[in-house]
Amino acid sequence: MNTIIYRNFGMGLFVFGMALSTFAGITIGDPKADTGAFTVSGTLRAKYNYKDYGHDVDLDNSVQFDAAIINLGYESPNVFANAQWRCYQWNDLCDFSTLVSAYAGYRLNETDNVTLGLQPVPFGPGRYWDSSFYAGLNYTMGLQDVLNLGLNYHAELPSATKVDLAYFVRDGGNYTGTADNDTARYSANIVKTDNPTMTSLKEKNMVVARVSQDLSFLNHDDLKMAVGGSYWYSQLDNKRNGEEGNRKAWSLFNTIHYQNFGLTLTGGQIEIDNKDPISSYSTFGSFDAEYNIANKGTFYSVDMNYTFKNVKDNLNVTPYIVLSGFNKEENGFQDSQRNIIGAAWNHKNISLYTEYVMSKNDVFIGGNTDSFAAGDDGKWKKLVNLMFMYSF
Fold it and tell me: Which top-rank group of organisms is this from (predicted)?
């Protein structure tokens, strides 16, 4: 129950999308033709971590290979598809590897489409809620950058309203890892476990809706604003007693872009009824680690960034600040926080992320399996995270 987890899982959230947008890989065909175009691209990553956790352990402050990523895409006037596989290294090459996405879509018109497969859950302001590489607490809580198996309908109305309605039959699945459990997965999902001090659950029949409204009456060439909200309801199979519980979550968000400045505010609540004698927390898993999360609480995320474009020879620099937290409703449970200050440096197909992470009661920053539930020692832990990326 008190096993310490010290693994930096290096998610590459916002980073990978930026890398692909700056270097398109190899494309065969024409996306405007009926036969479409196939694209193959990839990314190699290396990292350096300096961990200041305030206690005596093997912190592994070293430069090492982090991950290899392969992305396959297809684009035509009506049909599109994407698949992504990631191979990580904890000790040996590809000792943790996972399918991230695998979906196909059909365009109903210029704005509306339907997608089927392993794809992002439309919860919160977007797939990524902040500009950092390490990402805020909301990723570890299974709220942002979650990819599950299902169907999504996306529509854009003349009123500048964007709507997503989705149904997911199950989570993204378990793949190849070093741990003998259900945690070899990219997304942070509710998982099954044999540990009697943890819950053993399977999430299914997820219904998710998101609405985002552009505030066009405020918009002009330099200012873009939008507000929105999302809701998530799912069923939970308790694998120990056969009973059925549920998970409910909602979020409200606001995005502001003024010239090169961006601000995203997100807040919401999560409530889990796991139908288990352990009623105060539920067990989640991702990146070969399992951990407990309080069943009830409110979460928030604040992202501020500014991009200095073409500083020198096509070098773009984006400093950012990310504040995130989880305030738990259970009496005696300590709140969790993860704050990040950093900068992204992008030049053609090379990216460097430099960031300083400050956390308390955080599973992945010097904490333990109960950090997102009851908490740990409640002290601030620090991490310097440097991530180098080469895209091809």
Answer: Bacteria
Q: Where are the domains positioned within the chain?
A: 49-58+108-386
Strand 201-214 and strand 189-190: the pairing is unpaired
Structural contact between residues 18 and 391, judged by C-beta atoms closer than 8 angstroms? no
Q: How far is CA 213 from the centre of its chain?
A: 23
89: phi then psi, degrees, rounded to nearest 5: -130, 115
**Residue 83 neighbours by CB under 8 Å, 6+ apart:** 71, 72, 73, 99, 101, 102, 103
CA distance 329 to 298: 8
Cβ(239)–Cβ(201) under 8 Å?
Answer: yes
pLDDT tens for each residue of 213-249: 999 877 678 999 999 999 999 999 999 999 999 999 9
pTM across the whole model: 0.91
220 vs 211: CA distance, rounded Å? 22
Picking from 164, 244, 155, the residue whose alpha carbon sits closest to that of residue 205 is: 244
Identify the CATH number of the domain defined by range 49-58+108-386.
Answer: 2.40.160.10
